[in-house]
Amino acid sequence: MADVRQSPQSQEQPHASTDLQNLKKDLEGYREIILPFNKVLEWEKPHYPAILVGSITFIFSIVWYLEPSVLTSFSLLGVILCLVDFVVPTLSSYLFSSAEWTIVQERQFESICIRLLNARRHIINVKNALAILKRDKPRVYLLVMMGAFALMAWIGSLIDNLLLTYLLMVFLVLVPGLRKHGILQKLTSNIKEVVMRMIKGKEKANKTKTN
């Protein structure tokens, strides 16, 4: 009998399909809310970025004015998340009927779930890359991690904690729109070009010194 072996892609496809179905099942109670919220995140209308930044600014303004402790802030966040986790699926089951869910909406919902899975895979890939770097080149791993943490510590010493958290949240909510409109891709490509030019310039300078 012939030895039938599955390729890595054929082995990954059933696993990816299972992950997708599980994620869709987990988010099924939120799908009526996810679709319009995704439209806002992807800037389907010109005023959506202003709404996102304004909402984040309003929330952080309240936090800045009330100045709650760290424990109080996390407790309030936990309460809000618990309420959302309970109220949204319950209201969705009463307000929206499954018969009103169209094929177009299902495709949009599936596309969002695929992007969420891709984001999770990117995080896993970074984690695996760091693990491989630590195993194969521990000194380089130590320099990279120490440099990254030192940079973050330096930035944290320059900027207030609340302001830094605000800027990070604004950036995170704007990432889907930046990516959708190709702005993020252009920015990353420009950064890569600058880095490559710097590397090539250093290589040429080293060659001229050796000659």
Automatic annotation (TrEMBL):
Predominant location category: membrane
Domain RETREG1-3/ARL6IP-like N-terminal reticulon-homology: 31-198
Localization per Swiss-Prot or TrEMBL: Membrane
Gene Ontology cellular component annotations, sorted alphabetically: endoplasmic reticulum; membrane
Record key words, sorted: Membrane, Transmembrane, Transmembrane helix
Membrane topology reported for the UniProt record: Multi-pass membrane protein
Family annotation (InterPro entries): ER_autophagy_membrane_reg, RETREG1-3-like_RHD
Residue stretches spanning the membrane: 48-66, 72-97, 140-156, 162-178
Cited Pfam families: RHD_RETREG1-3 (PF24456)
Protein name from the UniProt record: RETREG1-3/ARL6IP-like N-terminal reticulon-homology domain-containing protein
Organism: Paralvinella palmiformis
The organism's taxonomic lineage, starting at the top: Eukaryota, Metazoa, Spiralia, Lophotrochozoa, Annelida
